[in-house]
Specification:
about 400 residues, alpha/beta, eight-stranded parallel β-sheet
Length: about 400
């Protein structure tokens, strides 16, 4: 078990990179739950560019879709049943041993033709609430990135039991799958919603007091990650994501993607409350870089705020979007104010200095630049049909 790093909250908000722990990207087999979603597809794009030889996606396709995955890779679909079939013959075996038995890694199986496919990305359709599905999906994986979740405050308020089943039971199932299969590295996608109302910036030493079921379920996931690190030696890292935006977000319901979709479709955008509530908006490529560095780090048993260290109001986002939509697309952003949402916090931004010190990570993309790149993606990637479909979906909900 790797030593847990102690944290003392600094007066300054940045550290010298000389104090960081070096990162080395694991090039074995990666399992990404929720990998057909927005963040998952961006992560897969990055991992393939970095030369990762084998990626397995476990997704129930309730939000992400096969066509989203196919935007970034040529994936093949495999059934859960095929993952429990022993591989025989004279194929090259890894030197790793678990429980005294030599194992054939998924990267080995791919490189030796074990799956008879040219794609290094395999999609397995399944639900993380099914423990047996998780167990089989994690077979022979070197790294697990657990992104699958019920996301957002509003859905958790509408159905707190479903939120718990997916975010708590699903996370426990994946941790058990990692333990049973001997997978050491486990990256958990958490949220700043675990903290609740506080005087920002949020940092890792604040005592959590979640105000929404979503924050409570993510906090439970962090607790199980801590327990599996201390009790079972799994190398867990919890990353509390800020408000993520960027390319490949055509189905995402958060403010930037949703407002772009609605504006392009001529719909009125609804601002909850007065619009002066603040969030820490992080561009998806910066967030993916944090995931990669966490997976390749020696750090374990830790939690990190992954955001930009900057506070922006929803009204600021609207102004930036409005100007860019007018310039790039010649359309107006129409807004109306409605009531505040139950469970939302007023102010939210993060101190990310711990991630700089221990992971050598810092965000690179400013909000205006990130919004510009996101809008360009919507305008240049044949989004018309998806925009209309997404709007109709919003109206049905």
């Amino acid at each position: 078990m790797r030593e847990k790093h102690k944290l003392s909250i600094p007066e300054e908000r940045e550290y010298s990179p000389s104090s960081t722990i070096p990162n080395s990207l694991p090039r074995g087999s990666w399992l990404i739950t929720g990998g057909a979603g927005f963040i998952g597809c961006n992560l897969i794009k990055r991992l393939l560019a970095d030369g990762v030889p084998y990626i397995r996606v476990l997704d129930n396709l309730s939000v992400g879709a096969r066509k989203d995955l196919n935007r970034v890779c040529n994936s093949s679909e495999i059934e859960i049943s095929s993952l429990v079939t022993p591989v025989t013959g004279d194929r090259r075996r890894s030197t790793e041993h678990r429980g005294g038995l030599s194992r054939l890694t998924m990267a080995d199986q791919f490189s030796s033709g074990g799956f008879h496919t040219s794609s290094p990305v395999h999609l397995t359709v399944g639900d993380i609430r099914d423990a047996s599905v998780c167990l089989h999906a994690a077979k022979d994986m070197d790294v697990i990135v657990h992104l699958a979740a019920s996301t957002g405050v509003a859905p958790s308020v509408e159905n707190p039991r479903l939120d718990m089943e997916i975010n708590v039971v699903g996370t426990l199932n994946m941790l058990e799958a990692a333990r049973e299969n001997g997978t050491n590295r486990f990256i958990f996608a958490s949220s700043g919603a675990t903290i609740g109302e506080c005087q920002p910036p949020i940092h890792e030493e604040l005592v959590p007091h979640p105000v929404s079921p979503y924050g409570a379920s993510k906090l439970a996931g962090e607790g199980y990650c801590s327990a599996y690190y201390h009790t079972f030696g799994r190398e867990t890292v919890c990353l509390r994501f800020g408000n993520v935006y960027g390319p490949l977000s055509s189905h995402k319901s958060s403010v930037i993607a949703k407002f772009i979709r609605q504006a392009l479709a001529g719909e009125v955008c609804e601002i909850h409350g007065d619009g002066d509530q603040t969030r820490d908006f992080i561009y998806v490529e910066d967030l993916v870089d944090a995931v990669v560095k966490a997976a390749g780090s020696d750090v374990a048993g830790e939690t990190f705020q992954i955001a930009t260290n900057k506070e922006h109001t929803v009204n600021e986002v609207v102004r930036i979007l409005s100007n860019q939509l007018q310039t790039k697309a010649g359309c107006a952003l129409l807004t109306t104010n409605i009531g505040s949402r139950v469970g939302d916090v007023r102010r939210n931004f993060s101190n990310t200095s711990k991630a700089l010190r221990l992971l050598n990570w810092r965000p690179q993309v400013r909000l205006d630049e990130g919004i510009s790149r996101t809008l360009d993606w919507f305008l240049t990637n044949g989004q018309k049909e998806e925009v209309v479909s997404a709007i109709l979906g919003d109206l049905e909900q």
